[in-house]
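Q: I'm writing up a methods section and want to include an example of the input and output format. Could you take the sequence below and give the corresponding predicted structure tokens, formatted cleanly so I can copy it straight into the document?
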Amino acid sequence: MKWPPGKRKRDLLLLTDTADLLKAVKKVYTYDELTEYLGLQPSTLSRYVQGEILPAPQRAREILAKLAEPAFMRRYVTKVFEKYSFSIHKAFSDPDFLTAVSIYFAREFLARLAGTRVIYVLTFPDTSSIIAAIVSRSVGLSPVIIGRNARSGETIQAIEKGSMSVMVASILGSEELTAAKEAMRMRNLRIPLVETVILQDPSKVVEMFGKERIIHLFP
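A: Here is the clean output for your methods example:
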């Protein structure tokens, strides 16, 4: 697995990711707040958000690096949950929110694992699969859905034995852990990275995967 080939393709992905992430965070941040954080004028940010212009590649890199900084993303996710009065259903029904966390996960995925032999993106049959689909498109892999309401046994049997996979979830709790354990047992899978928006039962997840392999945005 590696970064998408070709400078033009990478620059296009950079520009679209920057525009999408700016649009998402603008829902919960004011232009004044973003100006203070990014060091750009409100009028310039407004034109980026409205799609009137796109930033130059170097500026896009600078914007994206700051918006995809882990501490900022955690604050952003909390603000989205606050906006929806901590209604998880409403938050995960916001397409801009799903896109934003997917961009962050894809960047972390590539930063940590580019050049490795990751083959699959494991996910679950809920909003996790939407996030995983966006991540998979960015990194050039295909998502594999496991767990409840999926034809899990057949799906798992199709996974190459001993392969390396990354797990992507909207919520990672006991039910998802059970499905992951089954897939790992049946196909002897290696999972070097687990990405989830909400982490439930953190002690169990850490025990199963190790703290250094887990990325979560809430709590």
